[in-house]
Write a structure and sequence with these properties.
The chain is mainly alpha-helical. It is built from 17 helices and six strands. The strands form three sheets. A two-stranded antiparallel sheet has the order 1-2. The protein has a two-stranded antiparallel sheet with strand order 3-4. A two-stranded antiparallel sheet has the order 5-6. A hairpin with a 5-residue loop joins strand 1 and strand 2. Helix 2 crosses helix 5 and helix 6 packs parallel to helix 15. The N and C termini lie far apart (48 Å).
C-alpha cells in the first residue's frame, strides 16, 4: 500500500480526465473526525468488545472540540469576556521574495504565549495541532465564531432570542457547520445515489434498524465508521501542498513539522505559514490543491509520522506533552496500525459487510488484480474493511459531473458512501440540539453586512472562508 513517485505517475496516466476533490475537504474530514470520535487505547489494548471502548468525544456534530463540552469549565480557551474564543498571534516573518509579513491573529492560542518558548496549543483536543492544515482549520472556526458574535449584535439572525449572545453565536456556528457537513462535505465525498436515498424525507436506514432519536439510548459510534470507513482520507493526502504566496509549495513532512509536536513551532506559528484557503476549497480553480484519488495507495509521509502524533491520540490529562523528538517515529506506521486495529477489534471483512446488507460484493479480480492467489490463500477471502473501502472507490466508475463537458468526479464507493453518510445523518438525527432534529427545514440564512451592503449566504466552505477573511 505504500505509495511512490512511480506509482503516482502510473495512476496519473491511467486516471487522466478524472476530477479530484479539493484537499480542503480531506482535512475538513479530519476536523470532523476529531469532533466526534477519539479512542485513547494503545493498539495492544484494542478489544472486540465495543462496550469497553470509551469515546472521549461526544458522538455529536456539536463542535465540542472547538467550544468544549462545558465552556465554563475551560476558560483558558476564551477571552476575558467569556464570549470570544482566543486566537494566537503569529510571529513576524519574511516571504520568499524578502517581503516582511506582519504578525497577525492567525494562530492557535498557545501556552504562555509571549512569555515563554513553550508553544503548546491551548485546544480541547491536541490532535487539532497534529498538522498545519487541521490546525489552521481550527483557527478558521475560531475566527468564524468571533465574527458571528459581531454579526449577531448588528443583525436579527438568531432563532432563539432568549439565549445569551454567546449561545446564539454557538448555535449559529454549529448549525452552519452541521449543514455544511451534510450539504457541502458529503456531496464532495460520497456517491449521489446513496446521499439522495438517505437524505430524502421518509428515508429508512440500511445499516441501522431504524433512525434513532434523542429519546432513545445514546447512539454509539459504529466501529466500522471510526476504524475503517472514515479513514478514507489517509489515501487522499498529497505528497506536497501549495500553502500560499509566501512560501509556495511544501512537502507533507513540512505540514507535520509546522506544529508544536512536529518541532517547527517553538513559540508561535511564523506568519508566512498562514494558509490561503482559496487554494484548498476551490475558490481559485487554477490553483487548487487537488487531493489524491481514493485508492489503496498511502503517501510515504504517513509511514514516517513522529511519535508525538501517536501520543496525541491518548494525551488527555493536561496540555503539556513530552518534548518533540523528530528521531522517534510512530511504530507501527499509521497504515499498519489501522489494519491491525481493525483486526484486533474483529471488524467484519469487506465481503461480510457488503453481503450482510445486500450490497454488491467486489470480486477477487477487482480487489487484488493479478494477485487473486494471495486473496484466496493468505487473506482467506477476508479483505480488511478499510482496504476494501479504498479499493471499492478505485474500481467503481467516477460520477458524471453536474455541469456539461466537465470531467467526472471520483468519490467513495457504495459501501463506503453508505457507512459514512448514514453515520453522520444518524448522529444529527439523535441530537436534540442539531438543526436536523430541532428545525429540519433550516438553511443558512441570507444576511447583509458591511459598508458595501454585501449579501452573504454561507452555504459552502468557500463562502465561509471568504466571509471570515473579508472585513465587515
Amino acid at each position: 500500500m505504500k505509495d511512490s513517485p512511480e506509482k503516482r505517475l502510473a495512476r496519473a496516466k491511467q486516471n487522466a480526465g478524472i476530477t479530484r476533490v479539493p484537499s480542503g475537504y480531506v482535512y475538513l474530514g479530519q476536523f470532523i473526525d476529531h469532533d466526534i470520535t477519539k479512542d485513547n487505547r494503545y493498539l495492544a489494548d484494542a478489544t472486540p468488545d465495543v462496550r469497553e471502548t470509551r469515546n472521549f468525544r461526544t458522538a455529536r456534530l456539536d463542535l465540542e472540540s472547538l467550544y468544549g463540552a462545558f465552556p465554563a469549565s475551560v476558560p483558558c480557551i476564551y477571552e476575558k469576556d467569556g464570549e470570544r474564543l482566543r486566537l494566537g498571534w503569529t510571529l513576524e516573518a519574511r516571504s520568499r521574495n524578502g517581503r516582511t509579513i506582519a504578525s497577525s491573529p492567525d494562530d492557535l492560542p498557545r501556552l504562555d504565549e509571549g512569555t515563554t518558548t513553550d508553544g503548546t496549543a491551548i485546544v480541547i483536543d491536541p490532535r487539532n495541532d497534529e498538522n498545519l492544515i487541521v490546525a489552521q482549520l481550527h483557527v478558521l472556526f475560531l475566527k468564524f465564531h468571533n465574527r458571528v458574535l459581531r454579526l449577531l449584535k448588528e443583525n436579527d439572525l438568531a432563532p432563539n432570542h432568549k439565549e445569551s449572545l454567546f449561545d446564539q453565536a454557538r448555535r449559529f456556528v454549529t448549525w452552519h457547520y452541521q449543514w455544511l457537513v451534510l450539504h457541502d462535505f458529503l456531496p464532495a465525498i460520497v456517491r449521489k445515489a446513496v446521499l439522495d436515498d438517505i437524505s430524502r424525507v421518509g428515508s429508512a436506514p440500511v445499516l441501522y434498524t431504524h433512525w434513532y432519536l434523542p429519546a432513545d439510548a445514546p447512539v454509539s459510534m459504529p466501529v466500522e465508521f471510526s476504524v475503517a470507513a472514515f479513514r478514507f482520507g489517509h489515501s487522499m493526502v498529497r505528497e506536497g501542498y501549495d500553502l500560499n504566496g509566501h512560501v509556495g509549495g511544501v512537502n507533507s513532512h513540512e505540514i507535520i513539522r509546522m506544529t508544536k509536536r512536529g518541532g517547527g513551532i517553538k513559540k508561535q506559528l511564523p506568519a508566512n505559514y498562514v494558509i490561503d484557503w482559496s487554494g484548498f476549497f476551490g475558490t481559485l480553480p487554477g490553483r487548487v490543491n487537488r487531493a489524491q484519488l481514493i485508492d489503496p495507495f498511502i503517501t510515504e509521509m504517513l509511514y514516517d509520522l513522529p511519535k508525538q502524533t501517536e501520543e496525541a491520540f491518548r494525551f488527555q490529562s493536561s496540555l503539556r506533552m513530552l518534548p518533540p523528538d523528530p528521531s522517534l517515529k510512530m511504530i507501527p506506521p499509521l497504515p499498519e496500525t489501522t489494519l491491525k486495529r481493525g483486526s484486533s477489534i474483529r471488524l467484519p471483512s469487506g465481503e461480510e459487510f457488503a453481503g450482510k446488507f445486500g450490497l454488491d460484493v467486489l470480486s477477487p479480480s477487482q480487489l487484488f488484480p493479478g494477485h487473486e492467489d494471495f486473496y484466496e490463500r493468505a487473506l482467506n477471502r477476508r479483505t480488511p474493511l478499510w482496504y476494501y473501502i479504498l479499493q471499492e472507490a478505485a474500481v467503481e466508475k467516477p460520477e458524471p459531473a453536474m455541469a456539461t463537458k466537465s470531467p467526472p468526479t471520483q468519490k467513495l464507493g457504495t459501501v463506503g458512501s453508505r457507512i459514512v453518510t448514514e453515520t453522520l445523518y444518524q448522529l444529527l438525527r439523535a441530537d436534540a440540539e442539531s438543526f436536523l432534529y430541532a428545525k429540519p427545514k433550516w438553511i443558512p440564512p441570507r444576511f447583509t453586512v458591511g459598508q458595501t451592503g454585501r449579501d452573504w449566504c454561507l452555504d459552502s466552505m468557500s463562502k465561509l472562508v471568504r466571509f471570515v477573511k473579508v472585513e465587515i
